[in-house]
Amino acid sequence: MMAVPSKQAKRGAYTPSTELVPEILAGRILAIARMISRAEGSYAEASVALAEIYRHTGKAHIVGITGVPGSGKSTLVSSLIKSFASEGYKVGVIAVDPSSPFSGGAILGDRVRMSDAAEACHAFVRSMATRGHLGGLTRSTLQAVDILDAAGYSPIIIETVGVGQDEVEVVRAAHTIVVLSAPGLGDDIQAIKAGILEIADIHVVSKCDKPEASATVSTLQAMMALGTASTRTSWYPSVLAVSSVSGACIRDLKENIGRHWLHLKQSGELAERQHNMCKTRILATAKQLFEHKFNEDAEVLHKHIQAVMSRDMDPTLAAHLLLGWEDKA
């Protein structure tokens, strides 16, 4: 775990994380930003504060925006910020950016593209790096959502890095999933291949002024009519064509997002989604703690790796021994 930054400590400017909690609950921007940085940096000192913050969550509508890279997610989010803010909503955005596999740094371009909309609408936008994590989300992403939730933001939009075949983790982290497709990408069944058709609560086709947009809308509607859409909900996904540049149908999208949130509450499906979200977070955290433990205690892990390499032990037995499941080994 990371210690308190030495430069701040020397200046005496470091505020203990527990002292930031009341400021976060009051919606203080600086405190929110500081706590997200500490969550992202895995400060051990912040764990007590994050646990306290979590007790004040559960009120926000979490909306996941996903789709193939280049489909216009950031531009769509900017338009949604303006639309929600125009009706008095306090909008929070966590934009997950790809990080370099070499330096671990991220381009963080989403914050640049959304800054004008965020500043004009008093929205909170934060870009976070994936740090090599597949699935589009990280543990700190969800902790950042907690912080915004406790601070009174709703909806909270999670914009993923862009999904691939196995990168649909956002479905287990948000209440409403918006899948964005761009017209004229060539392969009409790419959405199915990527595993994203099934997770959508709302389908959106960008750049509706292009002639190819109507064909993409028709293709998505036909796929759902054939029964390839999600069966995890009684909600039937809508398909909307929008233009983030002109603003065409952005209001319709905002209203669809609101209707889905109401549907979850009235149908009882909200409790099921909350259950699945909590289950995913517990298991994901356990996995990360497990990996951290044996990265710290490399000697024990190395011993088992050598045994597996020499074929004296199979990987399943090695895993059982690492977990302390000798009776099951």
Automatic annotation (TrEMBL):
Signal peptide residue numbers: none
Superkingdom of origin: Bacteria
Record key words, sorted: Chaperone, GTP-binding, Hydrolase, Nucleotide-binding
SUPFAM superfamilies: P-loop containing nucleoside triphosphate hydrolases
Organism: Phyllobacterium myrsinacearum
Cited PANTHER family: LAO_AO TRANSPORT SYSTEM ATPASE, LYSINE/ARGININE/ORNITHINE TRANSPORT SYSTEM KINASE
UniProt-listed InterPro entries: AAA+_ATPase (IPR003593), GTPase/Isobutyryl-CoA_mutase (IPR052040), GTPase_ArgK (IPR005129), P-loop_NTPase (IPR027417)
Protein name as annotated: Methylmalonyl Co-A mutase-associated GTPase MeaB
CDD domains for the chain: MMAA-like (cd03114)
Family the UniProt entry places it in: Belongs to the SIMIBI class G3E GTPase family. ArgK/MeaB subfamily.
Domain called AAA+ ATPase: residue spans: 59-209
Single Gene Ontology MF annotation: GTPase activity
